[in-house]
């Protein structure tokens, strides 16, 4: 499997911790798991973005399997990861 790229949402920006060329990761068949360290920041905290964002916690990801064409997937963090994103969102909301 090849992880070609990951993307942010209307609210959150995601970037790899180190500058990685694309594709970001290639897994050989013998490898069961791997990680791509990323940093996520709340980059759009204005009222318009917060109101219009319908998938604030759904991140796009592009992968390919073998020689197959690249596929678009959506991933949604759960558990502790989701709670951290919710906390980040709460901290960026304008006071009012």
Which overall shape is indicated by the principal axes computed on the Cα atoms? elongated
Helix-strand string: EEEEHEEH
Strand arrangement, major sheet: 3-1-5-6
Low-confidence stretches: none
Could you tell me the mean pLDDT? 92
Count the beta strands.
6
Terminal-residue CA separation: 46 Å
Q: Supply the number of structural domains.
A: 1
- Alpha-beta content class: alpha+beta
Please give a structural write-up.
- With 96 residues, this protein is an alpha+beta fold.
- The chain has one domain (2-92).
- It has helices at residues 47-52, 79-92; strands at 2-6, 12-16, 25-26, 38-42, 59-64, 71-75.
- A 4-stranded antiparallel beta sheet has the order 3-1-5-6, with no helix packed on it. Strands 2-4 form a two-stranded antiparallel ribbon.
- It is elongated.
- 6% of the residues are buried.
- The mean pLDDT is 92.
